User: Fold this.
Amino acid sequence: MEPQKVKYKRSYKRIIIIGMIFLVFAATAMAYSFSKNASQKQGEKAFSSEDKYTIMVMGIDSRADDVGRSDTMMIFNVDTKNDNVSVMSIPRDTRVQIKGYKYDKINHAYAYGGHELSRDAVQSLLGVPIDYYVLIDIKSFENIIDAIGGVDINVEKRMYYNDPWDDNGGLHIDLYPGMQHMDGKKAIEYVRFRDGEGDIGRITRQQHFIKAVLEKILTPSILPKLPEIIKEVSATVKTDMSFAYMLKFAGMLPGMKDRQINSSMLPGKPAYIDDISYWLPDIKVLRQNIAETLALNVTEQMQRNADETAAEYEKSLPKGLKVLNEDLNKKSDENSTDNADSAEKKTIPVKPQDITVMVINSSGINGAGAAAADTLMRKGFKISSVETGRTSSNENTKIMTNDDAVSLFYGMPFPCVIMTGSGTKQAVLTIGRDFRK
Assistant:
């Protein structure tokens, strides 16, 4: 699927990071249990009486000539008393105030000032302190999955995508529904898959991937592979978390195996200006959700701070910013096309307002993404995001959609090739150099 070229490299890291962080905890715990030289000082009173912790986890895509960006950002709320974990994904395009740099995308904070500036931006956004940070180099993901012997994943739907222009020399994804064993390379295909669902679909796959990794690392077959796992994991992680606390969190894993990990996305709405996409946080809802998760009593001062921060944020929005569909971050009840009444649903005519489209400008033409999004919205389609491609190598404009929606894209005022293969009620428009505004 053509559009994944742009957001795969950003989206798959958000899913990878969850499995990797639990892998870190598990490997550390096992290393401690089987090491004769483990420090006995871990029994000292290193822990506070608090049983809830907030951990900022970032996946860093560093390069030789660039400090990189935090292409993945997640907030883990850990309740050690009840063995509960909730995870909130913060979209990389979230518009926040960065100290010394005004308002910008949150992933830029790392480039400007490392994890310290990222931490400051997140704390200001959430209104609560971050207890620990974890930085993970996601480039070793394939090796880590291979080190644990692969994972078993139940692929929820047909996933097909072919992009010869992908930055890594081409990307081909071809997965069929059903349970299958995946090595590192195949697992990357699963987590890199992206369609018109955007973050909604990613959160669903995130749950699947977490379960698969947890099930695998808690099996006896992992023990012989422990040295290789520790070697792979230790080279990818930087944190201010002590060994004692990593051990404490790792001890939660057995109790979590059969539990649902609450996963959500930062509440907000998508917007764009020109070809720049943003995620605009709903600060009031966010602060309320955080308070409920951490079981905090919301004081009048906290409520006042949330109201003032939200009002200040609204005033900061630039002129010309176009807000997209505000309900796109609400998870759909239709996560699979394989449900029992899918045949019945196919008899209902699909309308443009039923289709969510992700627009990616890979043409090199300034403003082409915004122009295409405007055209689609005038025709009634919903827009999930407007992105700028990493390259401008695509010659032709392509629309990938579901079989039932193909006819809705006929007669577009720009040349395009219409293909099938996306999920139900989704489409991705990848703009090529043949696009005409």
In short: The radius of gyration is 22 Å.
